[in-house]
Amino acid sequence: MYFYLIIAAALVIDIATKIAIRMHLELGETTEILGGGFRLIHLVNTGSTGNLFHGWGRALAILVILLTGIALYMRRQGKLRGTYMQVCVALIIGGALGNAVDRIVYNHVTDFLFFSEAATMNFADIWVFTGLFLLVVRQLFLTFKPSSTQVKKM
């Protein structure tokens, strides 16, 4: 159940924040929050990360929907085992679907969290990045974890 709740929460947060940005900031307009400690800027991206595949917004959305279907099928088949794996995949799906909604409705993605000139993103991007980062950390841990026989010899 938590798997679908994470997906739903990720979608709601992403879509609600994008709506708020579109309602309160003109395209290209910036504002500072948290006492000037963080900047929001209303930008659009017609491609994917780094504006790759410029202009392919709706095609990317279809790809995301197909990949989401595959992930949900794999989960149903028991291929995504354990809470950690399911949380990671739910974050990735929630973020990917959040950007897919933008791509279907607007043929672009609304970005607004300004980290640097090279990195402005939205919550969907953060969910996808977090899910992938946690999967990589887990894989590194499993790859470099000493085996139980090595631990006993120490």
TrEMBL record:
The keyword Glycoprotein does not apply. The chain crosses the membrane at residues 55-74, 86-106, 126-144. It catalyses: Release of signal peptides from bacterial membrane prolipoproteins. Hydrolyzes -Xaa-Yaa-Zaa-|-(S,diacylglyceryl)Cys-, in which Xaa is hydrophobic (preferably Leu), and Yaa (Ala or Ser) and Zaa (Gly or Ala) have small, neutral side chains. InterPro entries: Peptidase_A8 (IPR001872). GO terms for biological process: proteolysis. Its main location: membrane. Keywords: Aspartyl protease, Cell membrane, Hydrolase, Membrane, Protease, Transmembrane, Transmembrane helix. Its EC number is 3.4.23.36. The keyword Transmembrane applies. Pathway: Protein modification; lipoprotein biosynthesis (signal peptide cleavage). GO terms for molecular function: aspartic-type endopeptidase activity. Pfam families: Peptidase_A8. It is a multi-pass membrane protein. One of its GO terms (cellular component) is plasma membrane. The active site is at D111, D125. It is an enzyme of class 3 (hydrolase). It is found in: Cell membrane. This protein specifically catalyzes the removal of signal peptides from prolipoproteins. Belongs to the peptidase A8 family. This is Lipoprotein signal peptidase. It comes from Cohnella herbarum. The gene is lspA.
